[in-house]
Each structure stands twice: as structure tokens, then as C-alpha cells.
UniProtKB/TrEMBL annotation:
GO terms for molecular function: ubiquitin-like modifier activating enzyme activity. It comes from Puccinia coronata f. sp. avenae. It comes from the Eukaryota. SUPFAM superfamilies: Activating enzymes of the ubiquitin-like proteins (SSF69572). This is Uncharacterized protein.
């Protein structure tokens, strides 16, 4: 296992370069998803036909599994893998939707997968493992499977578990989100390994991303929000960039009017 991990570290960059070269000239299969008051949030499309791995099936992941179950009733959420080495106890019944009194004493992952299959039958398979994801990774011989991961999210995981998985995520260019919560206080860390790109175009031909000169799609997105007609609770969901762009446009229009009046007064004088 360790020897294969070391070999994977050396070949990681080569694999990424090969993958990037194969993608050159290919049509991108992802489109930017702008969210406005008139458009639905693209939650379902993000989760469709993906491989979902859930480690330590505690209450923090309860909402995620419920979302997968809701999606399974109408679409294809992809395959679901749940890793948990704990048994169901009485406190678990109070905050877990997929556990009942008959689940006490059973493996949490097994009980959860059983009810998840009943809620969305004849859909994509669910699998359970009576160990943690970290143990599964340690015993895994095919580390190339990490290349198929879109992201890895750690919520209130022990530091030792985060360190173990973060090494593989770093080697295989998988973004990793680490979340720790304590009451109303929370921290979110992001680990992502980017490829260094050397620009080959002249600096004058680069796209201007400054907010005072928004690109067309961003400008159209900002104009789609009519703040005067929105309710109070809807104002809380307006992206900050929209507010900034709209007030910049308002400021530029006022400055333009003042400059025009000053020039007119000077010409008259």
C-alpha cells in the first residue's frame, strides 16, 4: 500500500498532464449556472449520476442522504457508498431519518442503506461497508479511483482522519472541504491543488474581470434582479456582487450627469 502510494505520487503530475492534453479541443460539458429569482437552484443536476461516498453516517450527513433519497424518487442520483463501523444506539433514533427502533444494535450503514433502497427502489445501487472510509482507503489497492472523485467533504472528522485522506486528495488533485463546528461557530477550510498555467497571450488581450467593467453575462445577471420589487426576505438572498454592480452603475450614471452639467455651464459661461 505504501509503495503504491509513493509510486502514485510520482505519476500524479504525468497523469494530470495526460488528462489535460486529451481534453484539449474537446467541448466542455459544464455550463455556468447563474441563480436568479426566476431560476431554480441546480441542486439536482449537481447530484445526478455521481458516485457519493458518505463516511461516518452520523446526523451531520443525515440531510445529505435525505437529499439523495428525494433525488432518487425522480432522477438518477448515481451510486451511494456509506462507510460506518458504529452500531445504532438509542440517541441515533432521535436525529436520523433512516433509523427506527428495529435498527438498534445493527450497523448504521447497513440499516441506512436498507431504508434508502426502500424509499427509492429500482434506482442506482447503494452499498455499505462496516468500516470507516479511512480504513477502506488504507486497504485499497487501486488508488486510481481517486481520479473519479469530484470533491471530498469532511464534516467534524478527527484530525488524524483528515490528514490521511488529505494526502490522497492532494496527490490526485481532488478538492477537499474541511468543516468544524461548535455551536454557532464554524470554520471551513479548502484544500485544492491547482496546475500552474503559463499564459501565452498578451496581457492586453486578457479578459477584464473588474467589477466596474462586468462581462456581458454577469451584467445581464445583475440586471435580472429588480430590487425595488423584491420582498424583504428576498433581499437577503441577493448575491453581493449584484448589489455592488448595480450601485456602481448608479454611481457612474450620476457622475456622468454631473460632468455633463458642468461642461454645459462652462460652455455657457
Amino acid at each position: 500500500m505504501k509503495r503504491e502510494a509513493n509510486d502514485s505520487k510520482e505519476s500524479a503530475a504525468d497523469k494530470v498532464i495526460k488528462t489535460m492534453s486529451e481534453m484539449k479541443g474537446a467541448t466542455a460539458d459544464q455550463e455556468s449556472a447563474f441563480i436568479s429569482p426566476n431560476t431554480a437552484r441546480p441542486r439536482d443536476s449537481i447530484l445526478e449520476k455521481k458516485n457519493h461516498h458518505v463516511s461516518s453516517n452520523h446526523s451531520r450527513f443525515n440531510r445529505l442522504i435525505e437529499t439523495l433519497a428525494e433525488l432518487g424518487a425522480t432522477a438518477d442520483p448515481g451510486s451511494v457508498f456509506i462507510y460506518d463501523d458504529k452500531l445504532v444506539c438509542q440517541p441515533d433514533l432521535g436525529h436520523h431519518f433512516f433509523l427506527n427502533q428495529e435498527s438498534v444494535g445493527r450497523n448504521r450503514a447497513e440499516a441506512c442503506c436498507e431504508l434508502l433502497d426502500e424509499l427509492s427502489p429500482s434506482k442506482s445501487p447503494t452499498s455499505w461497508f462496516d468500516d470507516t472510509l479511512e480504513s477502506y482507503i488504507e486497504d485499497c489497492d487501486d488508488l486510481d479511483g481517486f481520479w473519479k472523485w469530484n470533491a471530498y467533504m469532511c464534516v467534524r472528522r478527527p484530525e488524524s482522519a483528515d490528514e490521511l485522506v488529505s494526502g490522497f486528495c492532494w496527490n490526485f488533485y481532488v478538492p477537499m472541504f474541511l468543516v468544524q463546528t461548535c455551536g454557532l461557530v464554524a470554520t471551513i477550510r479548502l484544500q485544492i491543488r491547482e496546475l500552474s498555467v503559463i499564459p501565452t497571450t498578451h496581457s492586453d488581450s486578457l479578459v477584464n474581470l473588474r467589477l466596474d467593467c462586468p462581462f456581458p453575462s454577469l451584467s445581464a445577471f445583475a440586471k435580472s434582479f429588480e430590487m425595488d420589487t423584491l420582498e424583504r426576505h428576498e433581499h437577503a438572498h441577493i448575491p453581493a456582487v449584484v448589489i455592488v454592480i448595480q450601485f456602481l452603475e448608479l454611481f457612474k450614471s450620476k457622475v456622468s450627469i454631473e460632468e455633463t452639467s458642468i461642461q454645459s455651464s462652462r460652455s455657457a459661461g
